Amino acid sequence: MALQISATNPEHPARLLALPWGLPLEEWPEEILVPLPRGISRHVVRYVRAGDEVIAVKELAQRPAVREYEQLRTLDRLGIPAVDPLAVVTGRTGAGGAPLEPVLITRHLNGSLPYRSMFETTMRPSTVHRLMDALAVLLVRLHLVGFAWGDCSLSNTLFRRDAGAYAAYLVDAETGETHPRLSDGQRAYDIDLARVNISGEMLDLEASGALHPSVDPIAFGNEIVRRYEDLWRELTRTSVYPAGKYHYIERRMRRLNEMGFDVAEMQIENSPDGDTVTFVPKVVDAGHHQRQLLRLTGLDTEENQARRLLNDLESWMATQDDYAPGDPLGARTEVLAHRWVRDVFRPTVRAVPPERRGTMDPAELYHELLEHRWFLSERAAHDVGLEAAVRDYVAKVRPEGPAEETPAS
User: Fold this and answer.
1) For residue 112, which phi and psi values (nearest 5 degrees)?
2) In the 8-state DSSP scheme, what is residue 133?
3) How far does CA 224 lie from the centroid of its chain?
4) Residue 214 to residues 128, 154, 217, 222: CA-CA distances in angstroms?
5) 403 secondary structure, DSSP code
6) What pLDDT sits at residue 320?
7) Cα(295)–Cα(190) distance, rounded to whole angstroms?
8) What angle do CA 32, 34, 39 make, to 5 degrees?
9) In angstroms, what CA-CA distances link 79 with 68, 75, 177, 195?
């Protein structure tokens, strides 16, 4: 059989042809390999440089190779964090024409590390918690699109920090199955497999002396399940809102914040029965909100102020006709952010007379107005709107200006 390279990108076959396909992966020369950390695998896996990028090459039988390739392409279309599938190579032959196993080729995720290797180093408790949250987010997102992993483990998951965000990526989709919708039993089975696999690998690290003494392997696996279940409940319960939906959306966002998650994307779909809101959670590093708000709007605030303003910005953007969730370049998001500053933020701040503001900076004032709107909406059991909140704030909270001038916190 002749060598065949089935690839999604027509540029890759030319780069791949130069690799030594006539040798088993175990015998590939050191000079073409890239020494990167990898998890435990039942297959032979090698990292190799192909042109200007690093690829992962995995030997396995043709049928599972093609199946995993298609599963990864499906996850890519669904917007799930996973490695990028590049090609399947079949028809390999070695010395004397002996057949060699086909290989699956994926692109190495720059800046990523296997979850397993993360626990071989000393980590702060806050980092451990973010790692757990990121893995819980990945499992929830997979199950929401009907994907049962079947082999979640520390070795099959990559960890990546990008611009302050913590994210987990699926590496191995060989055992995965895509369904229109997962039953509760399918989800429970998948999560229990994850718990057993993760705790088992942690026990293995503990036995080798590589695991930090502060990490309990069994408790860690159980905690992943608890965080997954909490997040699943919050994201999947009924999310159809009547008119005046902003108040209810904000309540959901606050609950996610209290659980330790932020909102990466929010999408509102209109229907005669009400508006359905979909949230995509994310896990972020300290100071992330300050940096993001400054980049998008030019507003320099404290971290809690920035989180609150970004929530309001995200809610407002989701109602705009030209909003594009998940815009990879962020160009549309930046345009909308500047429009929000011009049409929402500045007019709202200016609606409070200067003599009522005192030395309070605009970001803190806007934060207070949002909090006042939240208080009024909770009391009225519906969204009172920002304009009404500003009028009530001026009339009742600052009828004569601040009694004491203090720096914004």
Assistant:
1) -105, 160
2) H
3) 16
4) 10, 18, 10, 16
5) S
6) 81
7) 39
8) 130
9) 16, 6, 16, 25
- Lowest average pLDDT, out of 21-30, 132-141, 151-160, 301-310, goes to 301-310
Residue (of 127, 199, 201, 202) closest to 166 by Cα position: 127
- Closest alpha carbon to 192 in 153, 250, 159, 238: 153
Helix (H) or strand (E) holding 234: helix 217-236
Phi, psi of 346 (to 5 degrees): -65, -45
Structure tokens at 198: 């993760």
Residue 310: Cβ-neighbour burial (10 angstroms; 0-12, 13-18, 19+): buried
Say how far apart CA 194 and CA 154 lie, in whole Å: 9
Q: Which residue has the higher pLDDT, 355 or 127?
A: 355
371 three-class SS: helix
Amino acid identity for residue 382 in this structure: H
In 115-188, DSSP assigns E strands to 147-148, 157-162, 165-170, 177-178
**Cα(406)–Cα(393) distance, integer angstroms:** 18
pTM of the predicted protein model: 0.67
Per-position DSSP letters for 235-286, written without gaps between them: HHS--EE-SSTHHHHHHHHHHHHHTT-EEEEEEEE--TT-EEEEEEEEEE-T
pLDDT, residue 128, reads 78
Instruction: Quick: pLDDT tens for 47-70.
Output: 998 877 888 999 999 999 999 999
Sign of CA dihedral 83, 130, 152, 211: positive
**First CA to last CA across the chain, in angstroms?**
71
Nearest to 116 by CA among 172, 157, 160: 157
Q: In this structure, what token pair is assigned to residue 201?
A: 């690998």
Residue 320 and residue 331 in contact, taking contact as beta carbons nearer than 8 Å: no
